Amino acid sequence: MTTGPGPRPRSARTAPSPGNGPGWWAGPNLPYLAAIVVSVVVLVPFVVLARPFATSGDTAAAPTTAATPTTGGETSTTTTTGTTTTLPGDMGTLQGLDLELVTSRVAFPVYAVAIPGDDRIFVLERGGQIRVIDPTASPLPTPFLDLTDRVGSAGIENGLLGMAFHPDFDDNGRFFVYYTDTDLNSRLSEFRGGSRTDPVADRDSERILLEVQQSGIRHRAGMLQFGPEGYLYVALGDGGLGDASAQDLTIYQGKILRIDVDGGDPYAIPADNPYAGGGGLGEIWAHGLRNPWRFHLDGDGGLIYIGDVGQSNWEEINVQPVTAAGLDYGWPNFEGTDCYKPSDGCDMLGWQEPTLVYSHEEGCSVTGGFVYRGTAIPELNGHYFYADWCNGWIRSFRYSEGQVVDEQDWSADLEGAGQVSSFGLDGDGELLVVDSNGSVFRVVALRANEP
């Protein structure tokens, strides 16, 4: 390597000193020097404490890659840049996530739910009991509701599978459960009782709203959630027979239903349901689903996130506006983005392409989750968390302007979660992880405080 000539030497200037001229602290220099001293005294603490030039907003983190499906089962790759946000106050910088054990004393839990603002967490055991986890007393000795004599749980996909509190539960004491009965048929029922001061519901208050006769022993789904308009959404799988039930608009299998539990007897059909005026069962809100094992209605985003378990090659997540009723999610014509029945030349007319797919090289059974809207980890606001039951990983992404962005893999942070059968939210909106091996965890932040 060659370099140019070095800098030409210059004569050094002689600095004034007490023995050279009038000096720094004498004569006309004195007012200027006094001003400099005052400025330094004021400015240094300001720079150190207020950090006016610090980038206290977002700082770039490592880019993440989001996979978006294209026709034929391939994926196109979009690389986005995530952010690590330094928050004001004592919160500190988010370094990662961890699991906080809520309980390890439940039998095959499949769901966890809470009443907003209530410290209690209600955990559904597949065998038919709803346990109450109270932070002051751990699991209460008496179940909130015991339906073991009514629930049929033969086969891993049957049992007590879903629960939702009425939006006005504090006033009316109404809540709803979905379970398979002793004949393994699907049942949606309403119960009453179990207020904040009374830890036990009235098991004799059951009012059956809907019964669906089932031929197969699989794919019961079972998620229940109230939408922003006050209607109850109910997920049913296709029954596991490998037929076209999900496309048959005269039966309930392979659908998400939407009903008005505050009107009619035992309920009313919302007037804006897609088949309220005919052409299919009035309760149907969406069809073409194989086994929608957990959906989430995100009121803040106005979207529904549906995790639909695949058959041979693909798992999928569908994200659509809550207002988009009557969509066909493709099963069994499509699995993920591939033709399934028939294997070639399947009819794409009217089919809703999935938002995200992953192959069976990565997992085998998607566990749909929740969009995080809590306050403890604001950096993850809007992230949708989901998992794979077989491989045990947990991931998240944000859905922005019709695209999957900021995809993250939290498996290393949350490796103790085991086989994730479900997610949930506690009374403060913090994310819960349900391990089918018997534990429920809360997701918490790991932070590093600013020096």
3D structure, described in words:
With 451 residues, the chain is mainly β. It contains two helices and 30 strands. Strands 4, 5, 6, 7 and 8 form a five-stranded antiparallel sheet that branches. The chain has a five-stranded mixed sheet with strand order 13-14-15-16-20, with no helix packed on it. It has a four-stranded antiparallel sheet with strand order 3-30-29-28, with no helix packed on it. The radius of gyration is 29 Å and the shape is globular. The protein starts with 28 loop residues before the first helix and ends with a strand. 38% of the residues are buried.
Number of strands: 30
Number of discrete helical segments: 2
- CATH names the topology of the largest domain as Neuraminidase
What fraction of the residues are assigned to beta strands by DSSP? 35-45%
List keywords for this structure.
disordered N terminus; 5-stranded mixed β-sheet; mainly beta; 5-stranded antiparallel β-sheet; Neuraminidase; 451 residues
Question: What's this entry about, in short?
Answer:
Helix content is 6%, strand content 40%. It has 451 residues and is mainly β. The chain folds into three domains: 53-101 and 362-451, no CATH class; 109-204; 214-358, TolB, C-terminal domain (Neuraminidase, 6 Propeller), CATH 2.120.10.
